[in-house]
Specification:
The complex is a heterodimer of chains A (about 300) and B (about 40). Helices cover about 25% and strands about 20% of the residues of chain A. Chain A is globular and about 50 Å long. Chain A has a 7-stranded parallel β-sheet. A 4-stranded antiparallel β-sheet of chain A has the order 4-5-11-10, with no helix packed on it. Chain A has a two-stranded antiparallel ribbon with strand order 1-2. By secondary structure, chain A is α/β, with parallel strands linked by helices.
Chain lengths: ~300, ~40
């Protein structure tokens, strides 16, 4: 009798990059201060989105708890790409480093990808085409397939040979997925937070106008992964409410090659999620995690 | 200071407080105790 989890192969391949586990942090949910807690859990590291120039972010309050989730409006606070690159080694965990990038214009996206594309420490670039908290870089700018295709094509040309992921929002996800694929994206991250609002009834004010994340959006994200996986050939990184090992399995069965953990990592140790996923594989008699992708049975 | 925190480990940038001269610092890792003259309050 083999020991629990022994002999389970958690490794996957994404855009030609071997990852030791199918898990990675969702952008903006793991800072360098917290890296010590996640060694051996993630197959890739993915820091918070970088932008061409520093951003102060949105005024507080920025977060609000909701049933089974949270609404955030951080506003892409970051020190800008120059300092990001200077401090990049802080994110070296000995695993592939994916970098999330965003700009206000097509030109900004292109210039950013040129910088990131030429850095050998960076394994792949995730284009943040869907942050709901930045009007220009988010909903208005990248709302439709024409914008997605234009940005992805410019970034593709700016970072030749560098694997490119496009992170999409739920709205129009299938059309946007097709557009990103057509423009040369190597993979798609499905999906970002969903536009949401919390209200403080006592003060009669808006509390946080931002993006909803956490288990509350999991069924929506699963649907998005499922539909997109049937519409495109490129691999999908599932994201949205993953909080357990069985959630990881569900996203992979729905079509994801890898899975991001975000909000749940504020509540529980992501190591437990990986352990649960390993136990799940053991229980169902599947020794190879990669075989889970798209492995739904048809009734 | 007391701010609403998302992660508590510096990751989410949810618990920021404004500082003099512009920008924000995280109350969870840069604080929660600050020198009063640093903050814009």
């Amino acid at each position: 009798v083999r020991e629990r989890g022994i002999g389970v192969n958690l490794g996957i391949e994404l855009c030609g990059i071997p990852l030791e586990t199918p898990l990675m942090p969702a952008s903006g949910t793991l800072a360098k201060e917290a890296l010590g807690e996640v060694e051996g859990v993630y197959g890739a590291m993915l820091p918070k989105t970088t932008t061409p120039t520093p951003r102060a972010g949105n005024p507080p309050p920025r977060v609000a708890e909701t049933p089974a989730g949270m609404v955030n409006s951080i506003g892409l606070q970051n020190p800008g790409v120059e300092r990001f690159i200077e401090e990049l080694d802080a994110f070296d965990l000995g695993i592939p480093l994916f970098v999330s990038a965003a700009g206000d214009t097509v030109e900004e996206f292109g210039a950013l990808c040129e910088v990131l594309g030429s850095d050998e420490r960076i394994a792949a670039i995730e284009l943040n085409l869907s942050c709901p908290n930045v009007e220009c870089g988010g909903l208005t700018f990248c709302a439709g397939p024409a914008s997605v295709e234009e940005v992805a094509a410019v970034c593709r040309a700016a970072a030749p040979g560098k694997p490119l992921l496009a992170k999409l929002t739920f709205e129009g996800v299938v059309e946007n997925a097709r557009a990103a694929e057509a423009a040369g994206a190597d993979a798609l991250t499905v999906m970002n937070t969903i536009p949401a609002l919390t209200v403080d009834a006592q003060r009669r004010e808006v509390l946080v106008r931002g993006g909803l994340s956490g288990p509350a959006i999991k069924p929506v994200a699963l649907r998005a992964v499922y539909e997109v996986s049937r519409a495109v050939a490129v691999p999908i990184v599932g994201s949205g409410g993953v909080a357990s090992g069985v959630d990881v399995a569900e996203f992979m069965l729905a079509g994801a090659t890898a899975v991001q953990v975000g909000t749940a990592s504020f509540v529980r140790d992501p190591r437990e999620i990986l352990e649960e996923f390993t136990a799940y594989l053991d229980e169902v008699g599947l020794g190879v995690a990669a075989e889970m992708t798209g492995g739904l049975r048809h009734k | 200071v007391e701010e609403r925190m998302g992660c508590g480990n510096g990751s989410c940038n949810g618990c920021v407080v404004p500082v003099r001269g512009g920008g924000y610092v995280r109350s969870c890792v840069e604080g929660p105790v600050f020198r009063a003259e640093v903050l814009a309050w």
